[in-house]
Amino acid sequence: MVLYTTVRKAASSSAMSPTGLIAATPLPQRKKALAAPVFIPEKLLAALAPPPPTVVAPAEVVEQQSETESERKKKIVCSARRRPTRLVIPVADDAGEVAASWGAAAAAAKEADVEVEGEGFWVASRAGPRHAMEDAYSVITGKNGGDSQLAFYGVFDGHGGRTAVDFVSHRLGENVVSAVLAAGANTHPEASSAEEHDAVSAAIRAAYLATDSELLAQHQDASGGACAATALVKGGDLYVAHLGDCRAVLSRDGGAAAALTADHTCAAEGERERIERGGGYVSRSGSGVWRVQGSLAVSRSFGDAGLKRWVVAEPEVSRVPLAAGCEFLVVASDGLWDKVSNQEAVDAVSRSRRNAVSVGSSCAELVDMARSRGSRDDVTVMVVDLERFVR
């Protein structure tokens, strides 16, 4: 089964701009220009004046319409005092990003709650109130290349538009599965377990980089990017890879949380040093957030072409043997992790499992928890049952 899902707001993602272009000249300048006297010769006025219209009407109608000069003047004065008809100026569909963001924030749009239950996984997602939904997820399960134990799960968080997150959520899973199957076919039969694990990790890295290259080649005008956290189950092993601040947390041995990723942010010393060695710089904004070139808060991502020299798409990959005690995996966007700790997330899922309640309800609970604590970002939470893969 291949499932690619992009979570969107219930309301339209492109809000109407609140303003429109009325005239190229500023209003004070236009008033001043109209107030200036202009001399036109009387002969020129006579030449330009249109001929008086000829009106043919029955005599009785003409008599009823006859009126004195004073009555006509009164009507002219009253007409001048009336409120003019409201002028409605349509706004172009490609209104600027600032105007569109203003309209989206000002509109009383309903947030889109999405809850999905699949084969061994659950997802809950809600759009933030600030902009159109930029989170997505993808799942590939079932028999892939004859391997029923091969499965892919991913959560993605876009920034600067939907282009990158839409592309990556559709392509990355396919690229990872294809690369891993190809690596397995090319592995020597007598290769050691360590060599096989290294080949899988290298295939995942290559798939990430290939997806980034495809994105940059096919969407050269796109300025945004996307973060990701993915999990691949193969041969009794769990391979977790990530870019940016999406995170994967493992629950093991009765509900102990173990982070399998470390956020790629400019606050991390290793990331800051890597950027500076490459000729870039990291600065701290007024809100206290460290940013690459004073712009982007994450130090690794898909896309972000203008910062690609420093914001790389090479993921960190870790492997966990799936043995007794491995319970489930929580994968989520930073909209959750900014407000909820790793252990709190694991505790919420563990409670639902102990109480024989659907794990999907715990995903929704975590979304509500992040929102109640002030998160205004998109929040997407995925839980993957790992016990079904333990041999």
TrEMBL record:
Domain PPM-type phosphatase: 120-386
A GO term for molecular function: protein serine/threonine phosphatase activity
Residues in coiled coil: none
Protein name: protein-serine/threonine phosphatase
Species whose genome carries this gene: Urochloa decumbens
PANTHER family: PROTEIN PHOSPHATASE (PTHR47992)
Catalysed reaction equations from the record: O-phospho-L-seryl-[protein] + H2O = L-seryl-[protein] + phosphate; O-phospho-L-threonyl-[protein] + H2O = L-threonyl-[protein] + phosphate
InterPro entries: PP2C (IPR015655), PP2C_BS (IPR000222), PPM-type-like_dom_sf (IPR036457), PPM-type_phosphatase-like_dom (IPR001932)
Listed cofactors: Mg(2+); Mn(2+)
Membership in a protein family: Belongs to the PP2C family.
Pfam families named in the record: PP2C
